[in-house]
Amino acid sequence: MSDYQIIDTNADNIGNCGHCGNRNAKNLGHRRKTNWLRKRYAEGLRYKVLRSEKFGDVGMIEYALGNQAWRPVEAEGYLVIHCLWVYGKHKGEGLGSLLLESCLEDAKKSKCRGVAVVTSSDSLMAGSDLFLKAGFIPVDRIIGSSEASAAPYELLVKKLKKTAPDPRFIVERERLLKRYRKGLTILAADQCPYAAKPVERIVEASRTFGLEPKVVRVESAKASRELPTPYGVFSIIYDGKLIAHRPISATRFMSIMRKNTE
Ligand SMILES: CC(C)(COP(=O)(O)OP(=O)(O)OC[C@H]1O[C@@H](n2cnc3c(N)ncnc32)[C@H](O)[C@@H]1OP(=O)(O)O)[C@@H](O)C(=O)NCCC(=O)NCCS
């Protein structure tokens, strides 16, 4: 492991880092994520990059304080992991465990109640295996329940204070679905660098259905936690119905829309 270093990023050094496997600093999602991160450090967000001398950036972990989490959970006093990712061929060498360990160490140092994480077998999320092996336990579960995927999402926790209350999901679907009951609305936060391109492409694709979507940039942790999705930072709502709860391709969007407009 001597080839690897965990870099604690901040507003000054983040410009040099790859995001979630994307090293192209000119890419729209990458640029937006960098700006998003620069606003988040003051809120206590941690974004750590795993750097190899030989391969460059090979993984990352991002987590926030419970009351600043961009995931739909009530987790006051916990650290909430947004993302854990080891890229491509570097998986299976203990690097994910290394990143997770550094988050657990932070939680201990900061005297937090523990660490919580949303997991899923769905795309753009880490699965539960690594966390279960590290002693996390499931405390809540919710189904994806949009046409994009019905894969369940699980909330796992590793408590450092045994008597602390369990964190829980707070996915409140009805209020936001009512607000966007007419037409097509895409809600996306810059937290996920893989949301920007799909939003542009979905806007273009929706015109083939004669629709002009409303695009809402989700600008705060609170607004993100109010989205009707366990994923937290992305939703597509069509006539008051959730049709995608995480970023999807324009092709997938077109196929969902064809079914909805038949
Ligand atoms: C979940 C994830 C982070 C795990 O990372 P990882 O580096 O592969 O995890 P580890 O190597 O620490 O552990 C994985 C396995 O390797 C084993 N392992 C640990 N140390 C090892 C070592 N030195 N050599 C070989 N294997 C090792 C672990 O025991 C574990 O075994 P298992 O396969 O029986 O479960 C990784 O699979 C991943 O990035 N998935 C995609 C997640 C994603 O989509 N994220 C985007 C959301 S933001």
Structural notes for this entry:
With 262 residues, the chain is of the alpha+beta class. It folds into two domains: 166 residues, Aminopeptidase; 89 residues, 3-Layer(aba) Sandwich (Glutaredoxin), CATH 3.40.30. The strands form three sheets. The chain has a seven-stranded mixed beta sheet, covered by helices on one side. Strands 11-10-12-13 form a four-stranded mixed beta sheet. Strands 4-9 form a two-stranded antiparallel ribbon. Helix 5 packs parallel to helix 7. It is globular and about 55 Å long. Bound molecules: coenzyme A. The site of coenzyme A has 18 residues, from strand 5, helix 2 and helix 3.
Estimate the global geometry from the Cα principal axes.
globular
Number of strands: 13
Percent in helix: 25-40%
CATH class of the largest domain: Alpha Beta
Poorly predicted residue ranges: none
The strand line-up of the biggest sheet is 1-2-3-5-6-8-7
Distance between the termini: 55 Å
Mean pLDDT over all positions: 93
Q: Rg to the nearest angstrom?
A: 18 Å
- Describe the sheet with the most strands: 7 strands, mixed
What's the CATH topology name of the largest domain?
A: Aminopeptidase
Overall structural class, as computed from helix and strand content, comes to alpha+beta
Question: Do you know the CATH architecture of the largest domain?
Answer: 3-Layer(aba) Sandwich
* Overall tally of domains: 2
Strand content: 25-35%
In N-to-C order, the SSE pattern is EHEEEEHEHEEEHEHEHEEH
The CATH superfamily of the largest domain is: Gcn5-related N-acetyltransferase (GNAT)
Instruction: Give me the number of helical elements.
Output: 7
Bound molecules: coenzyme A
